Amino acid sequence: MIKKKLMVRSEQGLHARPADLFVRTANRFESEITVSNLTSGSGPVNAKSILRVLALGVYKDHRIELSVEGNDEQEAAAAICRLIETNFKNHQKKEAA
To answer: pTM score > 0.90 for this model?
Structure first.
């Protein structure tokens, strides 16, 4: 199992397009992936569910904890961490193309 604590710097937090990209990225992997909002104390929830991720209420500068367990946990954790750490910027451009 991999656990990572991350700071969400996106102006939208994990709402709207960032939440959609987060969930779509999580769904590319077989591993079980959960996310918690450490700032508000909510979660953990299934990171593959848009409704559950939105319900966490993750805003800009909130800390989250990502937990990934499964055969592709290394790749899944790396992809989601990269998404958060780049503020979804490179990924939004790819999605628009």
So the answer is: no
